[in-house]
Amino acid sequence: MTRFLAVLYGMCAYALCLVALLYAIGFVGNLIVPKSIDSGTVGPLLQSMLVNITLLGLFAVQHSVMARPGFKRWWTRLVPTPIERSTYVLSASLVLLALYWLWQPIPSLVWAVSNPIAVAIINAVFWFGWGMLIVSTFLISHFELFGLSQVFARLLGRELPPPSFHTPGLYRRVRHPIYLSFLLAFWAAPSMSTGHLLFALATTGYILIAIQLEERDLIQMFGEQYRRYRQQVAMLFPLPGRRLLDRTDT
Q1: What's the predicted TM-score (pTM) here?
Q2: CB contact burial 41-58 (16+ within 10 A = b; e otherwise)
């Protein structure tokens, strides 16, 4: 029974995560959703800035701390290992939903693009970013990333294989295509409000810090193999003069 409950828990966490990610598209792009980054009652500027920075900081702390190996070792003394990833996914989703709900709009414009061709290009980059995000998760292990593989392995009485280092597709061009996807989606805005700019700047800063923490963990896990990968492949944007990583390199 506990195995079935773990699967149910994992599926609920995954479903909520999908809702949070789909809502993010509407939230950032001011599309369809009832509460977006630029909608809602406008309050005092300082108050709105403080609220939004607090919400972004809460997400950054939750997302980074719970992902660290040291925290996981402590956390799995309280939470069964098969649902540890699902719990992380659930927590991140709840924090994101709270951010959407409590976000304070700051609608004053920083820039507004009016040229139809430029607007179309920017919107294409926006959708390209979200599409690349989905592709990037499936290039590694989508269902393990979101905790489903772990709970189904428990249900079937199987052990997941140990982590292995591989660089499929986009990962031979850039080390962090998922983070790149978010950057493209967050910055590609024909009309950039002050609130949206705050969001984009804060998430960019978080991403740059998160990459350093994540790569430190990956070096500890894969050692020299990952060090060579860092030397050969750009972090976010392919750079001139760096060759593309060949399959035989990893």
Answers
A1: 0.90
A2: eeeeeeebeeebeebbee
Strand pairing of 109-112 and 191-193?
antiparallel
Query: Coil, strand or helix: which one is 109?
Result: strand
String of DSSP letters for 169-186? GGGGTBS-HHHHHHHHHH
Cα–Cα distance list, 207 to 32, 59, 179, 180 (Å): 27, 12, 7, 9
Q: Map residue 192 onto helix, strand or coil.
A: strand
C-alpha separations of 78 from 65, 72, 74, 148, 239 in Å: 16, 10, 8, 20, 44
Q: Quick check: 250 pLDDT over 70? A: no
**Helices (DSSP H) in 30-102: which residue ranges?**
45-65, 69-75, 84-102
Q: Is 50 exceeded by the pLDDT of residue 249? A: no
Rounded (5°) CA angle 163-168-169: 155
List the chain domain ranges: 2-249
d(CA 235, CA 250): 17
Strands (E), 91-173: 109-112
Cβ–Cβ under 8 Å, residues 186 and 200: yes
**pLDDT tier at 64 (50, 70, 90 boundaries)?**
confident
